[in-house]
Specification:
The protein is built from 3 helices and 4 strands. A hairpin with a 4-residue loop joins strand 1 (29-34) and strand 2 (39-44). It has one domain (10-112). It is of the alpha+beta class. Helix 2 packs across helix 3 (78-112). The chain is 50% helix and 24% strand.
């Protein structure tokens, strides 16, 4: 039980790494579906898609030679977002554990020789 607590115990490095991984994974578009030539739907989030976005080409005033795109958020699942944050926190805990063990090994080898 103590090892599990030490693995999950929050630190600045784990929290910063988890936030960075969550932000990067939230930008990932999964299950892209073109519903027609002017509309498409995309789900955001990895490993659990937590937001469904519906985008379409919109007429009106746009800058010259650009395409106007309107975005509507159809579904937002807060539970899936929390699951993503927890999953990436576990990954960051594992990364920090491997990094700290490797650093300790290198430092021990340096002082032994």
């Amino acid at each position: 039980m103590k090892k599990i607590w030490l693995f999950l115990q929050p630190s600045i490095m784990k929290i910063i790494l988890a936030v960075i991984l969550t932000l990067i994974s939230s930008a990932v578009t999964t299950e892209f579906e073109a519903t027609s030539k002017v509309t498409w739907q995309a789900n955001r989030g990895f490993p659990f898609p937590f937001m469904s976005i519906f985008e379409y080409v919109q007429g009106g005033r746009c800058l010259q030679n650009t395409l106007c795109v309107a975005t509507n958020i159809q579904n937002f699942h807060a539970l899936r977002l929390l699951l993503n944050i927890f999953a990436w926190y576990l990954v960051s805990c594992a990364i920090v554990l491997v990094y700290s063990n490797a650093l300790n090994y290198v430092l021990r080898q340096r002082w032994v020789t």
